[in-house]
Every structure is written in structure tokens, then in C-alpha cells.
Design a protein that fits this description.
By secondary structure, this protein is α/β, with parallel strands linked by helices. The protein has a 4-stranded parallel beta sheet with strand order 1-6-5-2. Helix 9 links the parallel strand 5 and strand 6. The longest helix has 19 residues. It is globular, with a radius of gyration of 18 Å. The N and C termini lie far apart (about 60 Å).
Length: about 260
């Protein structure tokens, strides 16, 4: 019996949405959950033309964050809405199914060692945006780094796992040691917008010289909120010589539309 089969028998894949064992062999998510996530959580137009967050009005081009704050990155994609979506209980589902949401999935991925969820996230990312990413002709994928102390505590950097998976699919180099975190900052959720960016300004650094072939970078992270983290990283990369930075996030919140 192949090692992969033995591993699947001992540790069956769990659904990144409902966290139950995936009932179909070879699938990364329950078929019902896949349809449900695409219906309620997948971000579709209208989206912010700069960061890719969901907007509520078709006539709006940018979210309020991108209207108010200068952006160093050149564009962005966000795959799922983070927060709970309103819907009625589904007949045939276990009580409480309606309480699941994609933000919960990301938290399990990030803090509870559910690393296999990355397979589904990247599969869905490529399904929805693969052709767009390839048209960018990226030279390298760079994950948003975490402070070494946080990495030791968690045992991994969730953005790095996403980068490695995406790099395998796109057959693009992944660089995990160019952009580094040099300062342990306060949790971003405790701060307002202005404090977030100030909190991160000196948190990142570019280690060494950026290779000349790194002209277009895909910068990837799990969660996008106000964009302060992506902005801080993009500023450092561009100051070091990168020509274009395109941001990818798995989940993002929704903010009021710009006017």
C-alpha cells in the first residue's frame, strides 16, 4: 500500500469549511461545502480595483481603504469573504452548520495546524484566478513573513505554506528569506488604521540584495484587512528594486465603498 494511502487512512482529510471528514476520496472539501462556499463566500464582482476586496456597489471602483491610503502595490486578489454570511439553516445539515464561515477556516489553518487546508485554498485560487496570475508573468512568490518568535510558537508560517503550494502549481520560484520580519509588533486587530501602518513600518526588512530577475513579485498572505501589512511589505520590496508587486490573500473583510 502506498505511503499516501496509509496516511489518508490514519489521518483522513477534513473539510476546510465544516471540518468533518471529506466523504469523497481525492476531494479537498465536501462537495456540498464547495457549492456552499462558492455561493456565499467566494468574492465576485464588484471588487476593489486595487486590492480585490468585495464591494457592495457596481458603480464603485475602490474600497474606502484604497481611496484614503496610498498604495505601493500594483493590484490584488482576495479569494473569500472572511465574516459570516447571512443564510437560513439548510435542510439535512447538522444543527450549527450555518455557524461555519471562512474566517473560522483560516483561524484553524493559522493557529491549529490544519495545514492541509492550503491545498483547497490554492486549488480554488487557481480555479478562479489562475489565468490572471499567469498573465502577470511573475518572477517569484514571496510570503509575508512572521516574526521568528511567532513562528516558533506556531511551528510554521501559514503564508509560507500557501506560497509553496502556489509555487508548485505555477512552477514559479518561492523565496522565503528575502523579505524578513525584524520586529515583533502588537496584534493588528487591536489597532486602528493609522496605528496599523505605523506599527508595521519598521517591522519588515529586505535581507540582502534583490536579484535583478525579481521584477514582478506575487506577495501572498492568509488574511487582508486594511492592507497595512501588504503595504508595508510592498514599500520595502519596491524600495529595494522590485518593479511590480501583486498581492494575493485568501480571505478579506469588507469595508464601506469609496464614493
Amino acid at each position: 500500500m502506498r505511503a499516501e494511502k496509509v496516511w489518508e487512512l490514519l489521518f483522513p482529510r477534513r473539510c476546510p469549511f465544516c471540518h468533518e471528514i471529506v466523504p469523497v476520496e481525492g476531494e479537498m472539501i465536501c462537495p456540498d461545502c464547495r457549492r456552499f462556499v462558492r455561493k456565499y463566500y467566494l468574492i465576485r464582482e464588484p471588487v476593489c480595483k486595487r486590492c480585490g476586496k468585495a464591494l457592495s456597489r457596481m458603480e464603485t471602483e475602490y474600497c474606502m481603504d484604497c481611496m484614503v491610503h496610498r498604495r505601493s502595490f500594483d493590484g490584488g486578489i482576495s479569494l473569500f469573504r472572511y465574516g459570516r454570511r447571512p443564510f437560513k439553516p439548510i435542510p439535512g445539515k447538522k444543527p450549527g452548520y450555518e455557524k461555519h464561515y471562512m474566517g473560522e477556516s483560516i483561524l484553524r489553518f493559522k493557529y491549529h495546524n490544519c495545514r492541509e487546508y492550503a491545498d483547497y485554498y490554492i486549488e480554488e485560487l487557481m480555479c478562479q484566478y489562475g489565468s490572471r496570475l499567469m498573465r502577470l508573468h511573475p518572477d517569484v512568490i514571496i510570503p509575508v513573513p512572521v516574526h521568528p518568535a511567532r513562528r516558533r510558537m506556531r511551528g510554521y508560517n501559514q503564508a509560507e505554506i500557501l506560497a509553496e503550494k502556489l509555487g508548485q502549481v505555477l512552477d514559479i520560484e518561492v523565496c522565503t528569506d528575502l523579505l524578513i520580519r525584524v520586529k515583533k509588533t502588537r496584534p493588528q486587530k487591536e489597532l486602528n488604521d493609522e496605528q496599523r501602518l505605523r506599527n508595521l513600518t519598521e517591522a519588515f526588512a529586505v535581507s540582502g540584495q534583490v536579484p535583478r530577475e525579481y521584477r514582478t513579485v506575487l506577495l501572498i498572505d492568509d488574511i487582508y484587512t486594511t492592507g497595512s501589512t501588504m503595504e508595508a511589505c510592498s514599500r520595502k520590496l519596491k524600495k529595494a528594486g522590485v518593479y511590480r508587486v501583486f498581492c494575493i490573500s485568501i480571505c478579506s473583510g469588507q469595508v464601506p465603498d469609496g464614493k
